[in-house]
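Practice problem 4.
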């Protein structure tokens, strides 16, 4: 029996498993498919909330801690596994922002590097950007990471840790409960028990907790994205405009995203979204009209009230915790979310005040 059982092998589950194992704990990680193939694979990899001033301080605290940790994490994973997550520290432009005064006030209050720049700054760095804009907001420290490669590196890292048992293609059917204590889970491959169970199953977390008569307000929110097979240096920085963005990769590919659709667990792509995303892409970088669309896909984000994740013990039960509900910011918030939870599980002083993320007082009833 392991010290900990982590249910869900996305970036959150992988990072938490790694944190616990590096601290000396034994961990079993259970994933119903292949690790990091759901929202962790489907996202864009911007290491910042979109329009960060529009989020609460609870999200800002997690994001700030995580952003500073990614440089070390990416370098360490590359050295450990030989898989480079391709962290690009190029900054982000935000164009045509209506509430720029709020953005600048937020930056001053939280001491974040965000400034207003003139058109000359924008077009000097991104000459292919659509013409006619007079200014932008600039966040020079924002990075992007190639999330599929991050998932691959994390998976390899935990597989190489002797304290970790990885069970993929293993669907969780229900919790094993004795009185008010969760002992583990019943799966398609049999029961798995542990000293403590952590549910980090993204959009499916609320569904699983329903088996304990817990109503966790985490719901799937579909996002569709596309990638253009372009050339290097067409665009070099993340550009955000009208709620959508383009993200360059080192090999010249350029992602565009994303939609926000409340359709349950439906991951079907649509022609209307494809056309809308295409118009977004060429509206930001007109030259993308010269390049083919390589792929169009959809993923499910774990939506939560105000985008504030649930991190902590499940009220009314012993031996079970949750880490879910990061919504659009799973990759952004993952390092801090998992470090915070590891601190709580291991009895260490938390790196961040855990109270805003606790489940108590934030749950509904079935």
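Answer key:
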């Amino acid at each position: 029996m392991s010290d900990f059982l982590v249910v869900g092998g996305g970036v959150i589950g992988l990072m938490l498993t790694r944190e616990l194992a590096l601290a000396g704990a034994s961990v079993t990680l259970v994933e119903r498919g292949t690790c990091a193939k759901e929202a962790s694979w489907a996202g864009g990899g911007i290491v910042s909330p979109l329009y960060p001033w529009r989020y609460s301080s609870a999200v800002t605290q997690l994001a700030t801690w995580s952003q500073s940790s990614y440089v070390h994490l990416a370098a360490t994973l590359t050295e450990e596994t030989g898989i480079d997550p391709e962290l690009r520290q190029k900054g982000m432009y935000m164009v045509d922002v209506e509430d720029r005064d709020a953005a600048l006030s937020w930056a001053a209050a939280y001491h974040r590097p965000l400034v207003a720049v003139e058109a000359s700054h924008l077009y000097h760095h991104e000459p292919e950007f659509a013409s006619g804009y007079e200014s932008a907001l600039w966040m020079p420290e924002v990075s992007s990471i190639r999330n599929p490669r991050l998932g691959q590196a994390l998976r390899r890292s935990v597989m190489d840790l002797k304290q970790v048992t990885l069970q993929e293609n293993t669907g969780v059917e229900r919790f094993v409960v004795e009185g008010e204590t969760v002992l583990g889970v019943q799966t398609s491959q049999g029961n798995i028990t542990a000293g403590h169970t952590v549910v980090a199953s993204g959009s499916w977390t609320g569904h699983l907790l329903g088996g304990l008569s817990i109503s966790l307000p985490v719901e799937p929110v579909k996002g569709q994205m596309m990638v253009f097979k372009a050339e290097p240096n067409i665009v070099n920085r993340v550009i955000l405009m009208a709620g959508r963005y383009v993200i360059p990769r080192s090999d010249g590919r350029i992602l565009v995203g994303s939609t926000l659709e409340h359709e349950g667990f439906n991951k079907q792509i649509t022609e209307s979204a494809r056309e809308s995303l295409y118009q977004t892409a060429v509206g930001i970088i007109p030259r993308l009209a010269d390049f083919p669309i390589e792929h169009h896909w959809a993923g499910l984000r774990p939506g939560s009230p105000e985008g504030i994740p649930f991190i902590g013990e499940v009220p009314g039960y012993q031996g079970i915790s949750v880490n879910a509900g990061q919504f659009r910011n799973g990759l952004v918030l993952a390092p801090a979310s998992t470090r915070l939870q590891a601190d709580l599980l291991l009895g260490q002083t938390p790196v961040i005040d855990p109270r805003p993320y606790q489940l108590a007082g934030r749950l509904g009833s079935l």
